[in-house]
Amino acid sequence: MSSERRQEPVRGGAAASPPALRGWLGPVAGLAGLSVVVLGGLYAGGGEPGGVDRWISSPTADSVRPPWRHLALALDFLGEPVGSVLLVAAVVAGCLLLRRPRAAALVVAGAGVSVVVATLLKHLVGRTIHGDGNLSYPSGHTAFATALALAVALPAAGRLGLGRTAGTALVLGAALVAGAAMGWAQVALGAHYPTDALGGWCTALAVVPATAWLVDRAADRAAGRVADRGSGQAADRAAAGRAGPADGRQEGRPKGVGRRERH
């Protein structure tokens, strides 16, 4: 067995964030968080595409035609409230059927926290598109899709027993595919600038690894409390078992039996 393949020393189920990946995902999350801050500072209060946006694409409502427009609309629906709830519910059901409660918790927490953070950043940065009422940075749809992919890929890497290199490649690859697909849809439909999609992708990369660590920490503590309580109950039963027969023999022994009378 190679040195990269490590068993997860966790209690209470498979880890949401495999220990072998944490050393690499920590710096990735930090870099992603820094990117969110830098991009937010560059485009704060703006209402026009930046130089990078113009170089990639100038978003308009009719930038794609059928059948690609139908695909973009379908992806966009998965990031809307109804579509996202249905998608998360389906993934959580799959995790529970596979007996992966930590993965189910990460799906809900990772996607939810990423969307909340993206929404707060929109109001903080204040970048708009197609009018003052349309806050755009970062893309919440892209953050949601990326977070969901990360929440599935992280436990999957641990389940497959992947080492650091292969596991990190799987996790970042899944995040890249999901983020790129949703980001393309948002830019194609004119809902976001390309840098908004990049900000949403980085938001999920910064949030989900930290959320996975918190899920594991909370689950380990809960499992530890249950184990300690079970050990205490077992010790009490063992003590009662040792004391019980001795007491019974003393109580059931007639007076004078077993004693040597002195004359």
Q: Care to describe what's here?
A:
The structure is a single chain. The termini are far apart. This protein has helices at 19-43, 51-56, 68-79, 81-97, 101-125, 140-159, 164-188, 194-252. With 263 residues, it is mainly alpha-helical. Helix content is 72%, strand content 0%. Helix 1 runs antiparallel to helix 8 and helix 4 runs antiparallel to helix 5. It is built from 8 helices and no strands. Mean pLDDT is 84; it is low at 1-12.
Number of strands: 0
Q: What distance separates the N and C termini?
A: 78 Å
Beta-strand fraction estimate:
under 5%
Average pLDDT works out at 84
Characterize the biggest β-sheet.
Answer: none
How much helix is in the residues? over 70%
Q: Uncertain regions: pLDDT < 50 for 5+ in a row?
A: 1-12
Computed Rg: 28 Å
Note the overall shape.
Answer: elongated
Please work out how many helical segments DSSP would assign: 8
Question: What keywords describe this structure?
Answer:
single chain, 263 residues, mainly alpha, 0% strand, disordered N terminus
Short overview:
By secondary structure, this protein is mostly helical. The chain is 72% helix and 0% strand.
Describe the SSE topology.
Layout lengths: L18 H25 L7 H6 L11 H12 L1 H17 L3 H25 L14 H20 L4 H25 L5 H59 L11
Helix pairs in contact: 1-7, 1-8, 3-7, 4-5, 5-6, 5-8, 6-7, 6-8, 7-8
